[in-house]
Design a protein that fits this description.
Layout: H1 11-14, E1 33-37, E2 45-49, E3 59-65, H2 72-76, H3 80-86, E4 89-93, H4 101-104, H5 109-122, E5 127-137, H6 139-150, E6 157-161, E7 176-182, H7 194-203, E8 208-213, H8 221-231
Parallel strand pairs: 3-4, 3-5, 5-6, 6-7, 7-8
Antiparallel strand pairs: 1-2, 2-4
Amino acid sequence: MTTGGQDTVGTGATEGHLLARPSRAASESEPTGLRDLDAGSGRGALLYVPAGYNAARPAPLVVLLHGAGGEANGGLDLLRRHADAAGLVLLAPASQGRTWDAILGAYGPDVDAIDRALAHVFTRYAVDPARVAVGGFSDGASYALSLGITNGGLFTHVIAFSPGFMAPTRQEGTPRIYISHGTKDRVLPIDRCSRRLVPELKRAGYDVRYHEFDGPHTVPEDIAQESLDWFVPAS
């Protein structure tokens, strides 16, 4: 992975591989709340750390990916209202183009940017390596499935709200997968999207929780809550 600008990326990035991993030497004095990260990623990323964060108790992390034409706050808004209650650290990067690189044809600058943002978080905050998820909505959900399957050594869970497809470059590990989709979705129709993806994932050996709901291309409140109850079960 390079440390330069978005026009030059390493071989790992072009193959969708993320190198950053949670650190045991995280700082004990980092701020909580909402932060705008630069992390050398061009359009940047947003980080939300819950008020109850304690470096002595590693927190679950969700990387949240916006839909096509969106920005970082579109990803963050998917779960931000639940973060404090669930004790979640949320990282919401922005795609470098109008949508995520692999959806435009090839992995590269977005993988590099996400890797740098993750490295930034992992060196400063204590993250539970058993609860690291990637999630998103629409194009972000397609990208989350693709990155999650490719990087199963990092991501333990994948949360895909109304995905269209997946394009992993390899199958690493077996992250658990949550998928939701509206039966009245006219943007990414369910029959050619999730109803095709879910059986394919199950045949490949993945543990998939699938929820169809009566609605359009959206993330209902109860679906967001259900995904979190699945990711971080109440103790």
